[in-house]
Amino acid sequence: MKPFTGSTALLTDMYELTMLESALEDGTAQRHAVFEVFSRRLPGSRRYGVVAGIARVLEAVKQFHFSEEDIAYLRQAQVVNENTLQWLADYHFSGDIHGYAEGECYFPHAPLLTITGSFAECVLLETVVLSILNYDSAVATAASRMTIAAHDRPCLDMGARRAHEMAAVAAARACVVGGFLGTSNLEAGRSYGIKPIGTSAHAFTLLHDSEEAAFASQISTMGTGTTLLVDTYDVKQGVERAVEAARAAGGELGCVRIDSGDLVAQAFQVREQLDALGAVSTKITVTSDLDEYSIAALNAAPVDSYGVGTRVVTGSGHPTAELVYKLVARENKDGELEKVAKRAGGKSTVGGMKIAGRTHDETGRAAGDIIVSARTWEEGLAYLESREARPLQVELVKGGVINEKYADMDSLALAAERHRNSRAALPYAAWRLSEGEPGIPTEMVDIF
User: What's the confidence (pLDDT) of residue 4?
Assistant: First the structure.
């Protein structure tokens, strides 16, 4: 996995540092604390969410240190006092992080990350952790819904031009977690080992004096197995010319792409035309503002793959997973761990460290989640074992040392496989694209 360039410490909000300053001054900064990342609801009343961005979070934590330049900026901007700046200059995260393994399906109140350590070292991670998990999980959830709708037909990320340039790289990775098989973004290909895809746009056809000349040029460099874009002018004529160009080069055309019009009707018409021309092995890919609903509408059409852009990199209408980062337990003045909770209407939280597990029925289908509030991991895991629930959290960081299994180049393929398995185990109702209740119920238990 490609590391962040330089420090990630200033990818944060100012109030993290001003809280730190006050806590250092009043002596509470070193109190043991437990923070959790969770969602109160699933955006858009979706049936499940997908955990994505864990590897990127771990890389960000690794790079979360304040350089001399960072300290100089904070001093010049008078963000915090000199004592706090001296503390920040020596900062490194030395606590523990447990969390859902990347690719796992989740439901409301799930403790996606649990960060433990001193208040001072944990509070600083809030913004960068949420920035990554909220975006990546939103994109992965949208991608997962699209791959459900595609019914095993490949989905490919083509959204780079519809997002911030670096968000596009993160989105391509999250798409793979959700089941996509390739990306048009070359930086994502280099950084994460994702298969790069792409051939030509309408501009290439318009550059040439004729459509025939454009097709011949592309085939001469890319071979007859390439994908030709056939809707620059007239689709029917474009298909005929595409097939002729491949045969003139001594082969069968690999694929045609349709990027406009009534995609359902055009797919049927193009398939009929290709078959009539004897190009029965030539495939059809479609693009043009696809989302999970338009992909579902294309189920009956003879489409072989989908190129998805704007909708996937924007979470298909829900660009954030609505995750929050909250303090749920902390050491009191007597040195004892005490659960804490926010009581504000509509934004209340549940105190205590949570350990999550998933139960399954006799067929192996997920039956429900159990989230138990406990003082220690051992107590929580023992309770889950008594309920025959599969633990959902893994150890990501121990004493500041990152478990590379969840952060290296192989972690993306493992996350994609984990998601396929996690989603496949959900009851069929959870796969519906319509709004509704979470796919499985969640039971909250307090043994703190």
Answer: 58
Q: Judge contact between 85 and 420, C-beta under 8 A.
A: no
What is the structure's pLDDT at 408? Answer: 94
According to the model, what pLDDT value does residue 343 have? 86
pLDDT < 70 stretches in the chain: 1-5
Give the pLDDT of residue 1. Answer: 56
